[in-house]
Amino acid sequence: MAAKYKLVLRRDMRKDAVAGSKLYYANAKAAGVCDMYELCDLISLSSTASAGDVRLILDELIEVMKRSLGKGEVVQVGELGNFQLQFGSTGTLTKKEFTQALIKSKRIVFRPGKALREAIKNYAFEKLPDPTDKEEGGSGDDDDDDRPVIE
């Protein structure tokens, strides 16, 4: 199965782009969702753990990650990758003016491990059909043309 994308018209991001020019870019589209229940079932199929055991481990992983990230640690999850807390803040003129209340945009950053980074090199891609596109070329037959014929 191939990863799906559609084309979207956006501002031309090249350095030498003319002001106001636009180009079509690929935009990744999800083909569905693999939820926690399905994920646990799939993992249990290739291990000796039951789906419930897998769910228990993943739930506990989240609890451990919350504690570790809260302490400022980078959480390394093997070949899956690393998780790290990052944030920004509003600036102040002096150190004395700064308070914790100025810390904004808190987020957890994920950096995939080598196995995941390598996997995307082998992915195939498939363009989703755009209903607004007209067929190019064609067979020359007008059988699909539903316009009335004027004679």
Topology:
Elements lengths: L2 E9 L10 E8 L6 H10 L5 H20 L4 E3 L3 E9 L13 E10 L1 H6 L5 E3 L24
Parallel strand pairs: 1-6
Antiparallel strand pairs: 1-2, 3-4, 4-5
Which keywords apply here?
6 strands, 3-stranded mixed sheet, 3-stranded antiparallel sheet, single chain, 151 residues
> Tell me, what's the shape?
flat
Major β-sheet profile: 3 strands, mixed
Helix content: 10-25%
Q: What is the C-alpha radius of gyration, as a whole number of Å?
A: 25 Å
* Unreliable stretches: 137-143
Rounded mean pLDDT is 88
Structural class determined from secondary elements: alpha+beta
Strand and helix order? EEHHEEEHE
Total DSSP helices: 3
Task: Walk me through this protein's architecture.
The chain is of the alpha+beta class and 151 residues long. Helices cover 24% and strands 28% of the residues. It has a three-stranded mixed β-sheet, with no helix packed on it. The chain has a three-stranded antiparallel β-sheet with strand order 3-4-5. Helix 1 crosses helix 2. About 5% of the residues have low confidence.
